[in-house]
């Protein structure tokens, strides 16, 4: 979709605007629109609009949208992709096109090891976040036995791996679930059986909730 009318220059957003993780993407879009409205109010001769592309956070849907973005000569920069998996699936396309991109939430460590010269992020990667999470659990919460779960996706597994490294011997059990899963009784039984005092979940809020 398009926001803000006809502009010679546009930014693109690629991320989840519908689906189970929509609020994560909609928060980003809201921030982009606010920034553009503030910019455009001061630069009447160089208006910038937003073209947003809803991937639902899906690595399978994102590549076709990435092709549309790089095929639009009015798009001068990209905010996104929103998630690590869709970033992995589209990074080479944006790099080959030379399109500058900046993600506010893709944290997988490997994303900056692909040689994509125009790909950037403004958030700490999994190693930075994971070590901080582990330190908080051990020192502030006083956790002694932690169960760590991931959602089998690049974001969740990368973050959980870093947390486990930081927790060390305090990890008392682990499990993996799947995106879209609705029955978590087997995992609940594992957590209960491990007799832990804390739980860490690496993944998105739909399954976490």
Write structural notes for this entry.
It is elongated and about 65 Å long. The strands form two sheets. Strands 1-3-2-4-5-6 form a six-stranded mixed β-sheet, sandwiched between helices. A three-stranded parallel β-sheet has the order 8-7-9. Helix 2 runs parallel beside helix 3 and helix 4 packs across helix 5 (154-167). It contains seven helices and nine strands; from the N terminus they run E-E-H-E-H-E-H-E-E-H-E-H-E-H-E-H. The longest helix has 21 residues, at 22-42. Helices cover 42% and strands 21% of the residues. The protein is an alpha/beta fold. Helix 3 (84-97) links the parallel strand 4 (75-79) and strand 5. It has helices spanning 22-42, 62-70, 84-97, 126-140, 154-167, 185-194, 205-208, and strands spanning 2-3, 9-15, 48-54, 75-79, 101-103, 119-121, 146-150, 171-176, 198-202.
Topology as H/E string? EEHEHEHEEHEHEHEH
How many β-strand stretches?
Answer: 9
Query: Distance between termini?
Result: 30 Å
Shape: elongated
Decide which structural class fits the backbone.
alpha/beta
The strand order across the widest sheet is 1-3-2-4-5-6
**Count of alpha/pi helices:** 7
Q: Tell me what portion of residues adopts beta-strand conformation.
A: 15-25%
**Low-pLDDT residue spans:** none
The average pLDDT is: 93
Rg measurement, Å: 19 Å
Major sheet size, sense and barrel closure: 6 strands, mixed
Q: Helix content range of the residues, please?
A: 40-55%
Task: Name the descriptors.
alpha/beta; 7 helices; 6-stranded mixed sheet; single chain; 21% strand; 209 residues; 3-stranded parallel sheet; 42% helix
